[in-house]
């Protein structure tokens, strides 16, 4: 569902990282196989933006789980920048949603998913003012939405549930960085957004009308790499996956240890951080193997269903090839 561009406020931004200056790593995580005659791998640069599902990766960096001379996280203002950097070769890996990966593959960029961060189960939502009674009451309303695949996907699903067409609402295209200010200034009646912005807007009086729990399997966040990176950076990819799973285990077993750091990163209080993560399904190592390995990886099946939805909504120029979409390389022991 292409969105009107005449009301665009700025370049599209998907999950803009709100970074709070995590500081230099406090320690180093040793890389195996780097001693003796083994040649060190080149620096692995990983681009990401703002989304709680990526926050555990950034927490690992803040806690010194990465050797900064071997692996570096780079914050970018939009998913468009991440995809462009992957295409230009200025980064080797990028955090993207599955629909963004599919769109890149449809455009000829052979990206492979090597890690599933999360599946959104409420983290992406439509938040409206109290005067909007229900989904059907969105007719004629101003809906703030970013010009992105995810924004279009959530808006498409919302309108379908409401029985409305795109020409029956008034999309106002803006970056996610503008969502809270647009809400405060009364420029929109509803927002298609995601955490942590959803929690921030609800704290200002917004109410949740629709969310990704009604879109199972549609919004999956992955770590994507161009295919040659699989051979060039196997140890680095395994290191970042291992660090993510370490932080995930810590979050599940003792969330209090990570709450202050995650709250600082996301600009949320402790309870809001918990609520943001409640909207995510976070697969562990074993479940990642189900998503990424086997004769028919779960990710490929999910992608096939998602391609159909995206084509109906005119979100793809052509259907992408799904062969070789997923790899379990990063899940192997280091």
From TrEMBL:
Where in or outside the cell it occurs: the entry states: Periplasm
UniProt keywords, alphabetically: Signal
Does Signal show up as a keyword for this record? yes
Q: Does the keyword Signal apply?
A: yes
Gene Ontology CC: one annotated term: periplasmic space
Membrane-spanning residues: none
Its protein name is NitT/TauT family transport system substrate-binding protein
| Entry coiled-coil feature ranges | none
Specify the SsuA/THI5-like domain's residue ranges: 71-203
């Amino acid at each position: 569902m292409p969105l009107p561009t005449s009301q665009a406020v700025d370049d599209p931004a998907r999950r803009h990282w709100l970074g709070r200056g995590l500081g230099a790593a406090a320690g180093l995580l040793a890389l195996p196989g780097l001693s003796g005659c083994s040649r060190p791998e080149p620096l692995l640069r990983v681009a990401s933006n703002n989304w709680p599902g990526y926050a555990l990766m950034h927490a690992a960096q803040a806690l010194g789980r990465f050797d900064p001379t071997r692996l570096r996280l780079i914050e970018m203002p939009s998913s468009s920048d991440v995809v462009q950097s992957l295409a230009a070769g200025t980064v080797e890996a990028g955090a993207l949603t599955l629909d963004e990966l599919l769109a890149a593959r449809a455009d000829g960029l052979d990206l492979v998913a090597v890690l599933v961060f999360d599946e959104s189960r409420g983290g992406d939502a439509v938040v409206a003012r109290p005067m909007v009674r229900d989904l059907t009451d969105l007719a004629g309303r101003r809906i703030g939405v970013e010009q992105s695949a995810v924004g279009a996907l959530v808006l498409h699903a919302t309108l379908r549930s409401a029985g409305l067409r795109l020409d029956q609402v008034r999309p106002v295209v803006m970056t996610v960085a503008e969502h809270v200010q647009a809400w405060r200034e009364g420029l929109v009646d509803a927002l298609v957004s995601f955490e942590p912005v959803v929690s921030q807007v609800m704290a200002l009086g917004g109410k949740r009308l629709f969310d990704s729990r009604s879109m199972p399997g549609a919004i999956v966040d992955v770590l994507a790499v161009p295919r040659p990176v699989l051979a060039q950076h196997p140890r680095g990819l395994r290191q970042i996956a291992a660090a993510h799973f370490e932080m995930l285990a810590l979050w599940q077993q003792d969330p209090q240890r990570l709450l202050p750091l995650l709250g600082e990163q996301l600009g949320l209080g402790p309870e809001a951080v918990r609520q943001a993560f409640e909207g995510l399904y976070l697969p562990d190592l074993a479940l990642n193997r189900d998503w990424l390995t086997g004769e028919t990886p779960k990710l490929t099946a999910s992608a096939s269903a998602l391609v159909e939805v995206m084509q109906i909504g005119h979100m793809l120029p052509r259907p992408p090839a799904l062969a070789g979409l997923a790899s379990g390389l990063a899940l192997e022991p280091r």
